[in-house]
Each structure stands twice: as C-alpha cells, then as structure tokens.
Amino acid sequence: MYAAATESLIKQAREIKEEELQRFCGRIVKLLHTKDVSGDTVDSLQRLNLIVSATKYARELPSDLVRKLQTVLRSSSCPEQLQVLSSSIVRESFPPSVHSLCSDPSHDSRTFSHVASVVLTQAGNKEDVMPLCHHLLKSLESRLSDGQIPRHALPVLSKMSTVYPEILTDDEVNLVSRKLVDWLRYASMQQGASMSSGGFFSGPRTRQPAPLTEVDGVVTGDFFTVLCLGQSYTEDQWMNMYTFSMIKSWLSCALGVMCCAVGADDRSEVDSSVMSMVSATSSSSRLLPPKERLREKAFEYCQRLIEQSDRKALKKTDTELQKACIVESVSVMDIICGEDPSYVYRAFPCIKALYGRLNGDLAYARALLPIAQFYLNHSEIAAVDSEAVFCQLFSHCPAEQFNEPLLAFEFVQFCLLNASVLQDRVTNYRQSFPNLLKFLAWNSSGLIAEFVELLPSLIAPDTAIELLHTILDLPCLAAALDLQQRYASDRTAWDQQGAKVAACLDAFRQPSYRGLFLYILRPEAGTGDTIDRLKMLHEILADMAESPRVVRCAQVVPVLLHVYFNTVTQVRKADEKMMNQLLLVLLERSSQLYNIKTFNVEVQKVFSTHLQALCKLHPPLIVDQSREILELASSPANIYSKEDFYTHVVWVIGEYLSVSYDPRCTVERITSFFESLEAVLFEITQVRQSASPPSFSPRLITVLMTTLAKLATRSQDLIPRVSLCLSKMRTFACSAIVMTCYSEEDTEEIITRAHELINLLKLPNVAQFVLAPSAGGDGPRWHRDTNASLPQGMRAVSGLLHRHSSSLPTLG
C-alpha cells in the first residue's frame, strides 16, 4: 500500500490529459536539444517516466521525442542517469522502438545493456531480437579493446535464452557453452592489479598481484570461485562470477531445449553408457561435447562452493554470501542431475553431508529448501530415504521462523511447485497445515494469493474438519504468535498496542491457559478438530482484537473459506459423512468466532452462501441434522446475533424439508419444524407498548412467512394455522413502532407477501405446485417442454388467483 502523497502523484499521472501530455513532451524535446544537462531535464524525464509507467497500457509519445530518447539511449557520451531514464520511458511507451534500436547496436557496454533491456521488453517474437542475438554472439567471440562487453552480454544472453529458448542454434549453444566453461573453470588465481601511490617524489606504481584468499583468510589452493576473496579482480574473474550467476538459467533453458531436440531415442544404449562413464571421470572431461563438459565443470564448481561454505567466514557479509552460494549450488546440481541421472550418485554424498551440517541451524533455513527439492526429485533414483528431511522441514522451519518474510514466501512457493508430489510422497505434508498456516497468520497480506492456490492441496479426508476450524481460528493464531514473540523477547510493548497486550501476555504465561495456547500453536494436525474452551480463548485474546496484524489476518479468512468449501463440495460430492460434519461446524461456529470488527458478519455471510450449496448438494442433511438445526432455528436470540445466517437456515428448511428430497420427512417432523418457526414469528411480531423497535430486516419476516407456508403445503392440516398467522402481518406492519423503523416499501413488501401466501393457500394443490415444486423443477425440461412448462403452470395459477381474488378476504 502506497503512502497518501505517493497515491496522489500516481493518480495525477494517470489522469493527465492528452493535450497536457503533448505540451509536456514538447518541452522535454527542447530541453534535450540543449548541450548541458540541467536538473530541470532530469526532473522532467522522471515525471514523464512516472506518467508512462502509471497505467497498464502504453502511452503514445510524439515521434520526435521518441527519436530523441533513442538517440540519448545509444549515445555513449550521455550521462548514465539520462540513459536509464530514457530506457525506462521508451520501454513503457508506444510505438515500439525494437527495429530502430536493433539496426545498429552499440559496442559500448553500458549503452548496449540499456538498449537490450528495451528490445527484450518490446519484442513481439524471436525474429525481433535476432539482430541483438547475433551482435551478442559476435561480442563473445571477439576481444574488444575495453574488455567489458562480454560481462554485460551475459545477463542479456541469459534473459534472451529464458524468454526465447529456441533462438540459438546448436552450434551457437556449443559456442556459448565453451566460453562459459573457460570462464567458469579457468579464471586466474591472482588478484587483479591495483595502482598505488609511490610516495611524494615518485609516480604511481603497480603492485605485484597478491594471491586470493578463502572467506576464512586462508590462501586459495584450488580454482577460482565466487567465494574467493581479493581486493580487486581480473576480467576473467569477473566473467567467472557473471557465468555462475547465469548458469542455472542457461542449463534450464538453452541446454534443456537442446537436450529435448536431440531426444533420448537418438542415442544408442552404448553411447549413453559411455557418456555416463566419461562424465564420471573429471580427468576425461575434455573428451566431452561442449554441453556435457559445461555440466561437468558446473557440477565441480558447485561441489567446490559447498566445500568452501563450510569455512568460518571472517565477515558477516561473507557468511551471507556463503548461504546464497549454497542455495544456488544445490539448485544447479539439481538441474544437472535432472538432465543426466548419472550425476545423482556423485551428488548425493555431498548433499547428505551438507544437510547433516545445516540441519538444526536456523540461520541456514532457506538453504534447506533446495536440499529438500533435491531429495524430492532424486531420492527414488538413488534409493535414499527422504522422510526425515521433510519431517524436519515441515515441523521446525514454519514453527520457528514464521516471522521471516523471505523464508515464508520461498517455503510456500516450494509447496506450490511440488504440491502434487508432496501429497503423494510426503506423508506429513497435509498433516503440517497448522504449521504452514503460521506463515499466513504472520504475513497475511503478502501470502494470501499463494495460499488461495495452495489450500486445496492441504485438504484431506481425515483432517478436513480440523483444517476448517484452523482457518476460522486464524486470527487467534496470529494473536498467539504475536504473544509468543513478545514472551520470547521478554518485551511487553513493541507498539501502541502494548498496554492492551499486557493482560494477554500475563494469560500466556499462566499454566492454567497453557493447554489453550499449545493447541492453537500446535505444529501438526491430529490432536483434535477443535477445543471445548474456545470461548475462553476468545476472551483471553479479546484485547488483541484490534491489533493490526490480527485485523489483517481476519480479512483473509473469508477468502480462504470460499476456497475451502468450493474444493470440498467439488471434490467430495459423495462423501455424506463429511457433508454432515461440515454442516455441524457451520451451525456450531456461527456463534463461536473471535470478536473482531466485521469479522463475524463476513464469516457468517460465507457460511450462509455455502449452507445453501451444501444442502442443495445433499438435501438429506436437513433430516440428518434436524435436532441441531431445530435447536438453532427455534431460538429468537440467534436472530439478533447472526441474522443473515439464521435467515438462510430458515430458507433451507422450507426448501429441502420435503418428502420429495428425503422419505424421512414425516408429518411429525414437518410439524415440529413448523411449530418452532411459528413460535419465533409470533414472538418477534408481537405488537406491545413496551416492545422495542424491531432490529431485524423485513427480509427475515418474509422468509419466515414463506417457509411456514411451504411447510403447510406438505402437511395441509397446518394451513389454517399459517393462514391465521399471516392474517396478523398487516397489524404488525402498520403498527407505529414498526413504521418508525421500516420504510414504506418494506412494510408494503411484508403486507404483499402475506396477501399472496394467503391467496395461494386457499388452493392447497396449487400452493404446493408453486411453493414446493418437485426436485427437478430447476431442470431445463421444466422451462423448455411445452407439456411440462413451469411458465405455463404459473400462468394457470395467476388466472386462478385472479378469478378467485374477489372472494378472498382482506387482511386486517
């Protein structure tokens, strides 16, 4: 979310008129024609950059301005700030500048990089970037005077091969692979030459190159890697670093496509076995084709990085570099093993040793994800048991590092990428949802989109109900995690909520409440669907209800509930047991929610929607859970605490409590529901002097009246009772106390609905046809077949009612 000032600037940029934009562009053209670059020029370009970037569509700029920006972009003598701004503006503007910029690519490294960013952004197909590609390949083959162009070419080449994997021919892929091997494996082992002052009376002199060192200060004895340190670096050492930074994407895209093109069928069994034997011997690597040799050298490079990461770094920045190198190295080895399974047996001893070293060290939690990915992809081939790896991953990382945003995002991305495999092969994946939801509870605004996609994979038959309770308790989990962090840090107040949190923190410390917090913070499922003292937990956490983190977490719950119910109703349509359990949860939890502003209302709206869906999917639910439904429907207190949900419960009773849906709908059962709802309607529509104004909507009254009429048509002995009840609705609607609360339209709606229902009930068979059509009434046949047309039936009913209207009594 942007600050108010930023929002205002973006709004102004989006709403600028075309005439004003043209005048502003003309002013910039004049500024760019001046020789000296002023602050006004930079400010104007920055404002234009905001204007073209603030909208989803490309802004059309005057052609003379576009040409001038292209000139600035390709001019090596222009300040880099102007080139950066020009590149950003041209990328977002219309018409495209691909062809004009590709016509004569610059040899200047800085300029070439900015031009390439525009071309890759605006290119529509690989033909548009072919000139740029050829220029890149020429620059890699030649040795230019400045020596810089290959360094800037590699990131562009990496991006190009990612977007257009088939743009390079096999010969070109081999050419680049040979270059990458040289840079990756054969960089010099001495530091770059540095100039030093020779003293007051002598000129500067070049120092003798010093040896490179490891992160622990020991002189490097093996080949150069990104973990070799020095005061300055040679050009081939820089190319080594650039090569390692792009090797993962190059192996995945360019070499991956090449391997697919060759195909496994093109190799004989003998050739394959020979290739595996050769690749297993590094001393024979020069006999390999370029792509195989690159894999071999990249594999050795990653092994060396993993070895170097075991050294004790002298600087904290080098420790962070070691962590990043572990993540990248394991990912690269994973790709290599995926392309050539013969590497799996060479890689696993190294990966096992690395896991044994990092396991249990929270500082290296992010590095465990690529290791887990490696086990997931290759443990079956190597016949290695991976259960302990995933048990550690899912049980400890989320529970102990839920407050690390980057780890949370990468962890959820790992689950999303491997959801189907994790469901099938990792037994504790679905059991770990209480831990995974800690990431969402703490980082709700940043992870909601990912969890919407991930949630269906966490739903299992044996834990689905517990998962539903956990989603509903997500704000409680956010509050408990907050208290846990404060307790661990021995700090009561971190923010303005500190005074309110103190009481909650005291409760968190008390042994009598320990069981409540242990349950809400549990690491895995299986300890029970919910707890009996949920109301007590809500009371303990009442002062946390206004915490920003808790409020944000509460806002994502309705979204997750929709995803949950949609998944359950689509995947498990025939699971009657689960349907019954879900309905019981809806009835129970509709009155047991954490008291957060608007949270109860929003959740009950979701409950109402999916109550209808569940009952439509499985109408016998009404009879299966008749005792619980009747208990809720017969209490007028539920109207005032959850009117919307209560209204939908009444509606599904009238809709699905019918023998056409369930033969168990006896007259006695229908009568018991009728009498309960009749008593509720009578109580809430009593007109007394001491009565308070109704706080419920007219919609509830009309739904209650309609449901009673529906039930009466299914047990026609009840028709006189419901007619008497309906005849009193005019008195209620026209009373002074009701007129002060309801509008004229509302009272008219109540009177009209009562009048229509009384008229229908005068003709019981017609009323049953209208109010309680058969279960197939919503099928196409009812609306298309002229012999069974619902509209035709309605017209007949209208005629009957119109003919008898003069003999019907008036309400009053």
From TrEMBL:
Top-rank taxon: Eukaryota
Domain spans labelled AP-5 complex subunit zeta-1 C-terminal TPR: 450-800
A GO-annotated cellular component: AP-5 adaptor complex
Domain AP-5 complex subunit zeta-1 ARM repeats: 321-438
Family annotation (Pfam families): SPG48 (PF14764), TPR_AP5Z1 (PF25153), TPR_AP5Z1_C (PF25154)
Matching SUPFAM superfamilies: ARM repeat
InterPro entries: AP5Z1, AP5Z1_ARM, ARM-type_fold, TPR_AP5Z1_C, TPR_AP5Z1_N
Domain AP-5 complex subunit zeta-1 N-terminal TPR: 1-280
The protein's name in its UniProt record: Adaptor related protein complex 5 subunit zeta 1
Species, as recorded: Cyprinus carpio
